[in-house]
Amino acid sequence: MLRIKKLFVHHWTTAISMWCSIKTRERDGSEKKSRDAEVERSMENNSGRLGGGRKAQLPPGPPIVPFITAVQWIGKSISDVERTLRHLSSKYGPIISLGMNNSKPLIFITTHDLSYQSLVTRGAIFADRPPAPPASRYLSNDQHTISAAPYGPLRHLLRRNLTFGVLQSSRVNSYAHTRKSVLQNLKNKLKKEAAATGAGGSICVGLHFQYAIFCLLVIICFGDDKLDEKTMGDIEKVQRDLPAYQLQYLRLPEGGRKLSEREIVGLCSELLNAGTDTTATTLEWIMANLVKHQDIQLKLFEEIKGVVQASSKSGSEMTIQVEDIQKMPYLKAVVLEGLRRHPPGHFVLPHAVTEDTMLEGYVVPKDAIVHFMIGEMAMDSKVWDNPMEFKPERFLSSSSNKKNGEIAAALDIAGSRDIKIMPFGAGRRICPGLGLAMLHLEYFVANLVMEFQWACEVGHEVDLSEKQVLTVVMKKPLRARLLLPGVWIMFHE
Ligand code: HEM
């Protein structure tokens, strides 16, 4: 387990190393002060565009700040960064460049339209990754993971292997039995802990969610459904012994060589890491909103009840399966609203540009590093009515769009027609785990709402403040009371 943890390479590694370098410098108070002074001076001296020749065509932004990198320049925490960028965007527009001394600019894109134009319309040009900084280079085995590999034959091979070998829907569907047993395990743990706290007691649920999602991904990755604690705890051994999604048979474009054991571990770790925290964090945010908004929870429960009753399930069959989920538009809308309001990452991974290209009348030069602001786009009041509000109804199409008499949850979340939110990114680097993550979220939300009424801790409101760890998590982890009252009891009888 220790080894796997050390080798865990997932898609936030670049971001982590960025924040680590900021934090290190923060410890040195004098450097922080001088940085803050530079920030203020830059704001005051702002002249709209970088000066001189070809640089004049770069997207606008504050003047070059010497000696320090643009990332160190902008702030210290994710919310500071977003606040600063919001301020810059109101001043310079939807595309901003931060000048870096003697190197390519760092470009930030803040709107849906420009994200679509770059990631989809000009997808191939924006699909590269920048060279990894030393720590990420080590962790990603010299960029031999899907998320870190440059856009080219190696990334295509690894991604195709994951998409068709592991995440293919027929394969994912074949895990119905495994999902059920992981769910049962989760429900048992929650019940046991809730019973131990006594009447009115609340329990912390985030770690249980994380463990459940992790178990599912381990099985999907290694094709083994032995779910005892020992197997999970002994994951390092499992990784060595099992065929790890056929990775050992791949021949790399680099001279046809096989992957090394370390590279195989890196790729398995990428899958487990990329899928666990993101999905578990989103699940916690969704359940937190259902605790806060009992009316939404009840409406969802009614939808689930209707589908279950119509399919005449009873007793031990009372697990919502994938086929049932297809009949639950409100459930889909709740999950989409969770991903809009609380995307686990507020930025996609950094993209790099393979050739000079024009965007919004500005040149984005070859090798520029481009960041897309997922969090900002989800809060854009030009696109979303009352964006702070948790309102799943916004994803239900109007009654005139009823399909087969049912209201559908409408959104092209992959962004192939247009982009409204992009919690999974968009275009050629879009998250390959999108389908699996949506399925797991819908499956767990539906089954957990059917099993319990989720209520808040006595005397405490749910606090939706955020904090950046690997993903953007709840600053105060969700504590909930799990009840079986009134309407829930009647349904279960
Ligand atoms: C709620 C759950 C998830 C969210 C919100 C999410 C989000 C993202 C985002 C924003 C990216 C970066 C896209 C870009 O750079 O443009 C990404 C990449 C990636 N994700 Fe996910 N992800 C989730 C779950 C998963 C799962 C379950 C898996 C695997 C089973 C996975 C595997 C990956 C991989 C391998 C990449 C790199 C793709 C590439 O660079 O070509 N993710 N994800």
Automatic annotation (TrEMBL):
Provide any one GO MF term from the record.
heme binding
Looking at the record, which segments are called Disordered?
Answer: 27-58
Q: Topology versus the membrane, per the UniProt entry?
A: Single-pass membrane protein
Q: Where in the cell is it found?
A: Membrane
What family is it from? Answer: Belongs to the cytochrome P450 family.
- What is this protein called in UniProt? Cytochrome P450
* One GO term describing the cellular component: membrane
Q: Which Gene3D superfamilies match?
A: Cytochrome P450
- Pfam families in the record, alphabetically? p450 (PF00067)
Keyword list, A-Z? Heme, Iron, Membrane, Metal-binding, Monooxygenase, Oxidoreductase, Transmembrane, Transmembrane helix
Q: Quick one: which residues bind heme?
A: 431
Q: Which residues form the signal peptide?
A: none
Q: Name one GO biological process term.
A: secondary metabolite biosynthetic process
